[in-house]
Design goal:
This protein is an alpha+beta fold. It contains six helices and ten strands; from the N terminus they run αββββββββαααααββ. The strands form three sheets. Strands 1-6-7-5 form a four-stranded antiparallel sheet, with helices on one face. Strand 3 and strand 4 form a beta hairpin. Helix 5 packs across helix 6. The longest helix has 17 residues. Zinc ion binds next to loops.
Length: 275
């Protein structure tokens, strides 16, 4: 799953290329229920990321607003091209194509595409999400309130990936921010102090904000030890860059995403049992 910072960068790119332009043609692949022809003639007013959703907002000459909401899940990606350029993926993988004069935005392989009114986009797609981790200023109070409202003790590693509580954090930043604040992924939110919880959320926010500007190359992400040098993510069995202890990993939570941690830098506290 792309991290929230990837979607944010994508939105910035499409905004820069397409905003203010009139949609001259639009089409979806067979099987996509959304009606792209409704977009033709409208002007792209704004492109933004909300959590892991991308929202492309348009207004018709009559003032009617529509929202294209897409979620890339594991497979999707947006590309923008000058008209006539060779696409980097085969045309048969294109699910949604939006042309605005000499520029084309293509969504490849995304399973979740909806074209609707702003009210329905809010209800179907993004209304249930927690505050976005990338917002400036960070909505720390609202995020912490949602986490504290959870009925059961939740492992911190699961809390950070629960898009209802805080949206936009993917597995890489989950693992790296837990390392940087010294928390084991299975430590629960009930067993750390309010200040520690604030520091954890703030660490994820700071890391992700710092990486927005690095371009579209995921490998260039910097977690504080130089480009493409994660502390724990993807490093099972290798020595901790800080203390030398062997990095451990295990699948965690309903989504069974792999959590990575250093057993020394992130000691176990009262925790839910690994499952
Ligand atoms: Zn360590």
């Amino acid at each position: 799953v792309p991290e929230g910072d990837t979607i944010y960068r994508t939105a910035v790119t499409i905004q820069r290329w397409m905003a203010g332009r009139e949609i001259t043609a639009a089409r979806t692949a067979p099987g996509v229920k959304a009606d792209a022809t409704a977009l033709v003639g409208s002007t792209i007013t704004r492109v933004e990321a909300v959590g892991k959703h991308l929202l492309l907002k348009v207004t018709s000459p009559e003032g009617v607003e529509l929202v294209v909401r897409t979620h890339n899940k594991m497979t999707g990606s947006w590309h923008v091209y000058p008209a006539g350029a060779v696409w980097k993926r085969p045309e048969r993988q294109a699910r949604l194509v939006i042309e605005a004069g000499d520029r084309i935005a293509v969504l490849f392989n995304a399973p979740d595409i909806e074209i609707s009114t702003p009210v329905i986009a809010q209800r179907h797609g993004v209304g249930h999400l927690g505050p976005d981790i990338l917002t400036v200023p960070l909505e720390l109070h609202a995020i912490v309130a949602r986490i504290n409202a959870e009925q059961q003790p939740r492992a911190l590693g699961e809390v950070l990936l629960d898009q209802r509580l805080v949206c936009g954090i993917g597995n890489i930043y989950r693992c790296e921010s837990l390392f940087l604040t010294g928390h084991h992924p299975w430590t629960t939110q009930r067993s750390i102090t309010p200040l520690e919880l604030d520091a954890l959320i703030t660490a994820a926010h700071t890391l992700m904000r710092a990486n927005i500007g690095v371009g579209s190359d995921d490998a260039a992400r910097n977690f504080g030890d130089g480009p493409n040098r994660p502390w724990v993510y993807g490093r099972t069995g290798r020595p901790c860059r800080r203390c030398g202890t062997t990095i451990d990993s295990r699948r965690q939570g309903e989504q069974a995403r792999t959590a990575y941690w250093c057993p020394t830098c992130q000691p176990v506290r009262a925790q839910t049992s690994p499952s």
